[in-house]
Amino acid sequence: MSGVYGFTHRRSSGVSGGPYAEANLATHVGDLAEAVAENRRRFADRRGVASDRVVWMDQVHGAAVAVVDGPRNEPPVADALVTASPGLVLAVLVADCVPVVLLGDDVVGVAHAGRRGAAAGVVLRTVEAMRELGATAIDANLGPAICGDCYEVPAQMQHEVDTDLPGSACSTRGGTPGLDLRAGLARQLEGLGIATQVSPTCTAESPHLFSHRRDGVTGRQAAYAMLG
Ligand SMILES: [Zn+2]
User: How far is the CA of 19 from the centre of ligand 1 (A)?
Assistant: First the structure.
């Protein structure tokens, strides 16, 4: 089996309005529940699965990984999902945080790697969970996220994150302390022997993507992976 994966954007098929237009997939951001339900139904449709075959998460900026093998009534409280079951779509919601897709032989995973989760090791733990399920060769794909030019943080925070995730410290466009989480994550993954592709796209600079830092009240796009 091989993994399929992808990333949605604001103009993926959806019915949300205002700051959530059009294809917000998150239930926790203030959008109408009926609109999100319809957007999620369309998301599942486009992947060719029934809605209950998509596993979402209750994301908490932590490092917990949920191993799933079938539909869940309630989304697991976790920031990463791993499965060895074909036809199950694992979805992660983001709007600046790094969406991480991991494709193994017969095992796939996704992770939500924002500043806190990335520093707490959510991607390391996802790789561990996949290897426990038998994955040997794993490829990683880091999707659209806020870039180091845009992601300004206090110097102390930059130092703390770079201590936990070396390679993530950078300077912003304005010359202030910044974080490039994808650079840190790529270094971490390559240290694990995992070939990593990094999207050049910055959410804060791309009007077709949701960006929490740019817009405050906004929706979430998804990254997903499935064994096909
Ligand atoms: Zn940027």
Answer: 20
The two three-digit tokens of residue 206, written as one number: 């791309």
Which residues have beta carbons under 5 A from ligand 1 (an ion)? 147, 149-150, 202, 204-205
| Domain range 3-145+204-227, its CATH number among 3.60.140.10, 3.40.50.1700, 3.40.50.300, 3.40.1440.10 | 3.60.140.10
| Gap from CA of 176 to ligand 1 centroid (Å) | 14
CB atoms within 10 A of CB 218: 25
Q: How far is the CA of 188 from the centre of ligand 1 (A)?
A: 21
Q: Are 135 and 2 in contact (CB under 8 A)?
A: no
Ligand 1 midpoint to CA 173 (Å): 9
Strand blocks (E) in 115-163: 138-142
Residue 128 CA to ligand 1 centre (angstroms): 30
Q: What is the pLDDT along the chain (228 residues), one digit of tens a residue?
A: 789 999 999 999 999 999 999 999 999 999 999 999 999 999 999 999 999 999 999 999 999 999 999 999 999 999 999 999 999 999 999 999 999 999 999 999 999 999 999 999 999 999 999 999 999 999 999 999 999 999 999 999 999 999 999 999 999 999 999 999 999 999 999 999 999 999 999 999 999 999 999 999 999 999 999 998
Strand partners, 7: 223
Q: Across-strand partners of 224?
A: 6, 91
pLDDT in tens, 169-187: 999 999 999 999 999 999 9
CA of 154 to the centre of ligand 1 (A): 17
